Amino acid sequence: MLRSMRDVDRLIIPFAELDRTPYAEEFVGAEHGAGGDVPFSVILVHSPTGAGPKVHRHPYAEVFIVERGEATFVLGDERRVVGAGHVVVGPPNVAHGFTNSGPGELRLIAIHGAPRFATEWLRGDDATWASPARSDETG
Q1: Integer Cα distance of 15 and 99 in angstroms
Q2: Hey, where are the domains in the chain?
Q3: Are 113 and 60 in contact (CB under 8 A)?
Q4: Closest CA to 139 of 117, 122, 112
Q5: pLDDT (tens digit, 9 = 90+) per residue, 57-110?
Q6: Under a CB-based contact definition with an 8 Å cutoff, are residues 69 and 102 in contact?
Q7: Is there a contact between 74 and 95 (Cβ–Cβ < 8 Å)?
Q8: Angle at 80 between CA 92 and CA 78, to 5 degrees
Q9: The CATH number of 24-121 is which of 3.40.50.2000, 2.40.50.100, 3.30.70.3270, 2.60.120.10?
Q10: pTM: predicted TM-score of the whole model, two decimal places
Q11: Which of 7, 105, 110, 119 has the fewest CB atoms below 10 angstroms from its CB?
C-alpha cells in the first residue's frame, strides 16, 4: 500500500538513474517497486547501425518492441528483418540476438520475464552489451 508521496516518488525512476551500457539503459525489476517485487526487467535500447548484442539466451522469455528503425533478429536458426511497429518474442532458452540493420538509430524495448537479468552468452562474453555487475549477484 502506498502511504505517502515519498512511496510514490520511489516508483518513478528517471532514465538518468538507470544503469547504463553504451547503447542502453536498464531497469532491474528486483531493485524497484514496493520491496523490490517487480517481476520483470527492461532494457531501453538506442543503437547505431551495425550494433547489437552477440547471440545469447535466457531461462525466461524476452519480448522486443521495435519502436524505430530496423533490426535483423536471430531466433534459433532463423533470421528475420523487423521494422518499427513490430513485437518479437524470444522464447525461453532459445538463442537470439539482433543487429541494427537499418540506416538510422534503432530504438527498441526489451522486456525480460524475470526480476533480474540472467544471460548466457553463446559466442563469448559481450562486454558492450552485458549488464553491469551488481554486488548482490553471484556468477
Answers
A1: 23
A2: 24-121
A3: yes
A4: 117
A5: 999 999 999 999 999 999 999 999 999 999 999 999 999 999 999 999 999 999
A6: yes
A7: yes
A8: 55
A9: 2.60.120.10
A10: 0.89
A11: 7
CA-based radius of gyration for the chain: 16
Q: What is the DSSP string of the chain?
A: ---SHHHHHTT---GGGSEEETTEEEE-GGGSSTTS----EEEEEEE-TT--PPSEE-SS-EEEEEEESEEEEEETTEEEEEETTEEEEE-TT--EEEEE-SSS-EEEEEEESSSS---EESSS--TTTSPPP-TT---
Q: Are 93 and 57 in contact (CB under 8 A)?
A: yes
Do 13 and 32 form a contact (C-beta atoms < 8 A)?
A: yes
Q: Which residue has the cell 549488464?
A: 131
